[in-house]
């Protein structure tokens, strides 16, 4: 079984095989940022593209923890 890795993008964490996580990290590191900025007061929004200086987190997920979390499935909404 391939080792799993979690990668945090925004407010979500995704689980991928190590190879896929590294591929995703390479792609994201090449991406530029896009942002629409609201100014209010009747002024038009502005649109911006700039260098990606954000960080993201990757962690190795041991097989035992992956299997336990997989069994737990999606959490119930409270």
Describe this structure in a few short sentences.
By secondary structure, this protein is α+β, with helices and mostly antiparallel strands. The chain has helices at 18-30, 63-72; strands at residues 4-9, 12-17, 33-37, 46-50, 57-61. Strand 1 and strand 2 (12-17) form a beta hairpin.
Model description:
- With 78 residues, the chain is of the alpha+beta class.
- The chain has one domain.
- Helix content is 29%, strand content 35%.
- It contains 2 helices and 5 strands; from the N terminus they run ββαβββα.
- The strands form 2 sheets. It has a 3-stranded antiparallel sheet with strand order 2-1-5.
- Strand 1 and strand 2 form a beta hairpin.
- The longest helix has 13 residues.
- It is elongated.
- It starts with a strand and ends in a 6-residue tail after the last helix.
- The model has no long low-confidence stretch (mean pLDDT 91).
Strand content: 25-35%
- Supply the helix-strand structural class: alpha+beta
Distance between the termini: 34 Å
Total count of domains? 1
- The percentage helix is 25-40%
- Sheet with most strands: strand arrangement: 2-1-5
Major sheet size, sense and barrel closure:
3 strands, antiparallel
Helices and strands, in order, run as EEHEEEH
Tell how many strands the DSSP assignment holds. 5
Provide the residue-averaged pLDDT: 91
Shape: elongated
Query: What Rg, in angstroms, do the CA atoms define?
Result: 18 Å
